[in-house]
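SUBJECT: protein chain
CONTENTS: sequence, structure tokens:
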Amino acid sequence: MATKFALLLLALSPLVFANTASADTTNVLFLAGGRSHASGEHEFNAGCRLLAKALNEQSGLDIQATVINGWPEDQSVFKDVDAVVIYSDGTKVIQHGWERADQLAKSGVGLMFMHYAVHPSAEQGERYFRPWIGGAMETGWSVNPHWVADLKALPDHPISNGVTDLVRAYDEFYYNMRFQEDRDQVLDLVTAVPTRERLKRVINLWNQHGVNGIGKRQTLMWGIQREDGGRGVGFTGGHYHRNWAIDDYRKLVLNAIVWVAGADVPQDGVPSETVTEDALNENLDTYPKENPRIPLPNVEEFMQLPPATNVSMEDYENAKAAQKNRARKAKAKQLAK
């Protein structure tokens, strides 16, 4: 009898161990936004899949990352999820699930928003984003220039694991976020200092706060430990798809994903394979015209770009007025034909 019982245990042991391993697995759900901008910009689907592949196949961690395009119709995908990462245009994904996301946050699930996804309305920022992740972009308060940043990770925090030097990247790094009232509870996970020389493009959301922030350290990735036990992270980079090929840029984000999911970040950071040009061009959004091939980034080339000439508010308003005048003349010329 004892022998039969032992044989039964032996037969069942793979199932027992499989269930144990599954219970210990960290589950990350990426929600990718739809096609946006030009090819190589706002490549939400391709970016999510590149990061998920790094976590699933290259990190060596007990982690399962899943990518879904848009807000899921099947709500069962949220079962046992440890973190949800949203990478999209504004609130185009989260708008379909405000209350569900709020329930997830209050149950301790980690939430991370990347690039344009950190930009809700002022009301949504106050009601959801600041409680969830500690801050958000806000029109009239925050700015969205394209600039070359030397990213500095917060020392002695898991985000900085394996990243020993400054990480240089050219991106549309928003800054001057609207943070929660208890600012001391918000971690400045990644920071950089914008300068007039580093600002290469000043565009539609520029304001006096952006001017005032020049020469001052700005928070480009932030995080909180919520009272519900979960964590929240916001990251303003991610406009240019090519930047995922910068090893330490990618590592900072992978470290953040693992941290927001409540898992341990390896001492040397989350490992991943160097992204080749072929890998960078996988899963890109399709457009009516053939996609131009995205080259690997050469940040020093972007350093050579001339500084923006419309940084002061006077120059910015003059440039905006001139642009409107050109558009008006072009329209009149077209109508005259």
Observations:
- The longest helix spans residues 313-336.
- Residues 1-21 have pLDDT under 50 and may be disordered.
- The longest strand covers residues 146-153.
